[in-house]
Amino acid sequence: MNNFDARARDWDKDMIHMDRSVAIAAALEKMVPLNDSMKALEYGAGTGILSFLLKDKFAEIVLMDSSNEMIKVCEEKVAFHETTHIKPVCIDLEKTDYDQKFDIIYNQMVLHHIDDIDAIFKKFYSLLNPGGCLVIADLFTEDGSFHEPGTKVHWGFDPNVLSTKLLALNFSNIRFTTCYVMKRDSGKEYPIFLLAAQKEIKHRHYPIYN
């Protein structure tokens, strides 16, 4: 059992996870115009907190996570809400290909757990429809104190560096903002950015940004 499998049953009990998701959902709606014909993918969905906040905004939402236990919690939530348009799938996208296409891909606090950022960006690009949007919420560059010592993660990111990577893949309309600040009992603060980028098309079917 991996760390996230072990934490799945108690994940939603931590109010920081809910507060953070509420802030990210609000910022996402401001940054990216959504419509109810869109098909969405939440990558690294965990227990699906963010997607259940956005469940009325999309025609279909795929909740993707590599943790079996997280996906089990998602399935229980789907049954509880009696919804048919939210579809949990247990897939490790770093190791497995996926052949569906989406109008928007979003994730929160996931990217710093990904070993190869360039590779996952290429996969996101391939999964997006022309004009589709990628939205990332994650830590600004930090001093390594966010996780326990020895945890193998990126110490946050400079959104400008991520933007350069995305531009090289032909994403455009890139913007970012601070969407939330996590505060620890020690008083330490960890700001979180929300970054959005659009897969380029010659003829846009609907506007991604106001």
Outline the structure in words.
- The protein is an alpha/beta fold and 210 residues long.
- It has a single domain (3-199), classed as Rossmann fold (3-Layer(aba) Sandwich), CATH 3.40.50.150.
- It has 6 helices and 7 strands, in the order ααβαβαββαβαββ.
- The chain has helices spanning 3-7, 15-31, 49-53, 68-81, 117-127, 159-168, and strands at 39-43, 60-65, 86-90, 102-108, 128-139, 171-183, 189-199.
- Helix 4 (68-81) links the parallel strand 2 and strand 3.
- The chain is globular, with a radius of gyration of 16 Å.
- The N and C termini lie far apart (44 Å).
Task: Compute the number of structural domains.
Answer: 1
Distance from first to last alpha carbon: 44 Å
Main pleated-sheet profile:
7 strands, mixed
The helical percent reads 25-40%
Question: Taking all residues together, what is the mean pLDDT?
Answer: 92
Count the beta strands.
Answer: 7
Largest sheet, order of strands side by side?
3-2-1-4-5-7-6
CATH architecture, by name, is 3-Layer(aba) Sandwich
- What is the helix tally? 6
What's the shape? globular
Secondary-structure element string: HHEHEHEEHEHEE
CATH class: Alpha Beta
- The CATH topology is given as Rossmann fold
**CATH homologous superfamily label:** Vaccinia Virus protein VP39
The assigned structural class equals alpha/beta
Low-confidence stretches: 203-210
